[in-house]
Amino acid sequence: MSGADRAASVGSRESQQPARQLSPARLGLSDVFRVGLSGLRSRPTRVVLSALGIAIGIATMVAVIGISSSSKEQLLRQLDSLGTNMLTVQPGQTIFGGDAKLPETSVAMTKRIGPVTTASATGKTDTTVRRNSLIPKEVTQGIAVQATTPELLKTLDGSVSKGAWLNHSTANYPATVLGSEAAKRLGLRRVGDQVWIANRWFTVVGVLKTLPLAPEIDRSALVGWDAAKKYLDFDAHPTKIYERSSDASVEEVRNALPRTVSPEKPEEVKVSRPSDALSAKAAAAGTFTSLLLGLGAVALLVGGVGVANTMVISVLERRREIGLRRSLGATRGQVRTQFLVESLLLSLLGGVVGAVLGSIATMVFALYRDWPPVVPPWALSGAIGATLAIGSIAGIYPAMRAARLSPTVALATA
Amino acid sequence: MNIVELTGVTKAYPGGVKALRGVDLVIEPGELTAIVGPSGSGKSTLLNLIGTLDRPSTGRVEITGYDVAKLSDRELSALRARHIGFVFQSFHLADGVSALDNVADGLLYGGISLSKRRKLARAALERVGLGHRLGHRPNQLSGGERQRVAVARAVAGEPDLLLADEPTGNLDTAAGSEVLGVLSDLHRSGTTIAIITHDQDIAQWAPRQVRVRDGHLVTDGGAGTGRNQTAAWEEVSA
Ligand SMILES: Nc1ncnc2c1ncn2[C@@H]1O[C@H](COP(=O)(O)OP(=O)(O)OP(=O)(O)O)[C@@H](O)[C@H]1O
Ligand SMILES: [Mg+2]
């Protein structure tokens, strides 16, 4: 080629260059994923191990959230079925510090409050219940012997698991209905068995089912009001009144109760709402055990460090591949994206596996405890979000290193 | 337009090594050029500059009409993706990936769809005589076959320039001649090829030889001498 030719061609080239813009082709999303995946596929063991770190962290957090949500759900459902419209009245302290007593008329007075639909009472006696007379009096096993009005079962919305509730005749005779726990502690097998109360045999006519709103009844042997007066020296003063009203008027009734039950000394009366304890428990169950969540977060952090480590090693090992890709026309940005996507996919793999494991753990635990299994959707999306964040943070540094690598140096690494 | 045009090119590495000390080189379309020289003479450095993998310290490098100094790193990437194919001494194939996909992935950065990439890859593999080895992975191929896969990858996108740095360096004579045979076929069908070698026999086989010594070009048959000539491979193998 002559000098003139060359000059001419240079000239034409300079005018040509702007017209022939060189711009790198964009990789489609599917190609970006293919490339990211191919990097993972070639090192399966390492991928599984480093994804495991993320999986453990995510599984822990999802399980902690899931189990506490399930327990909350269980308590809320229980509350729903038990109702929150029951109030109880108990004697408080007199101004002199002694134990107050509720007037004998308290139940009748309570029933007069407009919105009250049902009211009943129990009264503690000083006796104990035993399997037989040979067992010393002092061995009470924590079981109280209580007089009860016939409406108690209705007020508590309870039912018998065996036998029958007290009726007009059995309420006058030495007969008793045992709470579920009392029956268990006495080792009672059958209705019709006899137990020893205050120097005489009482026939067990029924056993109650567990009453979540009145655990004190579970641990009682119940005797009819008149029978208690007749056989057990019962003073006829109620020690606890139970009443139910419509849901809307609970507060109104709560305010009216002290003055109604004890017009002279309303301050000696304690009103409470047994369902409050359950509501508080439900609220507490909803706030996750922060220690366990913290543990999950630490596991997740360690998992993230594992991913970053894997990616750094991967970049070091794959210098030749990076050099090759650069020689094939990959831009720095494309190399960076490749390693970032790889890191994201790696940690996403861990996150998805962790979310599944955490959900399974919740399911198994909830079914074992007979709770409704609940994994809140926000916990799952949070888990995936956290993994993506970890994957990108862990991937940024290795990806930048990969992109900065000069193609000649990368290719020279034999 | 010339495929390669180097004017007064020097390259000094950090540390003071002057690998190239003023090189002028023109390669015209269709030429098959052998770049020969002793070890350390600057052949790979020269190839890296021609391949736009590196920039000169001084002087002007023009590839397929583009002045490399005026292009950004992104634009150089695009230039490599569309206009240059590389073959390396150590193949650089991905393990565990079939020959077909190794070749197809070479077209990834050219903005070609996956199905088209596979189609071009199949054609390229057939061109290098590996149409029956599409699904084989690198570890199931002989050294010569692996290098032919690498050649297929380099030419699948029909680049204007094929650069090969010691493509037979890791191969025995028989496998080496397989690869050179493929390169001569490509040359006959019009591909512009520059091949680095320190093997005098291979250098003789190429229609045009450029000799490098201590960073200078000492003898050059001149631009155009390597164009459209039948490679004399038969003489070498004899
Ligand atoms: N990245 C680098 N940094 C510093 N010096 C380098 C670098 N690459 C090459 N060199 C030096 O530049 C000179 C030319 O190197 P080059 O790789 O181009 O030689 P070569 O002709 O390809 O040799 P061989 O036949 O052994 O491959 C050598 O002296 C080498 O040590
Ligand atoms: Mg070299």
Q: What does it look like?
A:
The complex is a heterodimer of chains A (414) and B (238). Chain A is 56% helix and 14% strand. Chain A is of the alpha+beta class and 414 residues long. Chain A has two domains: 26-77 and 285-412, no CATH class; 85-274, no CATH class. In chain A, strands 1, 2, 3, 4, 5, 6, 7, 8, 9, 10 and 11 form an eleven-stranded mixed beta sheet that branches. In chain A, helix 3 packs antiparallel against helix 14 and helix 13 packs antiparallel against helix 14 (377-404). Chain B has one domain (4-237): 3-Layer(aba) Sandwich (Rossmann fold), CATH 3.40.50.300. Chain B has eight helices and ten strands. Chain B has helices spanning 43-50, 73-83, 99-105, 114-127, 143-155, 173-188, 200-205, 233-237, and strands at residues 4-12, 18-27, 32-36, 58-63, 66-67, 84-87, 161-165, 192-197, 208-213, 216-220. In chain B, helix 3 (99-105) runs parallel beside helix 5 and helix 4 packs across helix 5. The radius of gyration of chain B is 17 Å and the shape is globular. The interface between A and B is large, with 39 and 43 residues. The structure holds adenosine-5'-triphosphate and magnesium ion. Chain A: Its main location: membrane. Chain A: Keywords: Cell membrane, Membrane, Transmembrane, Transmembrane helix.
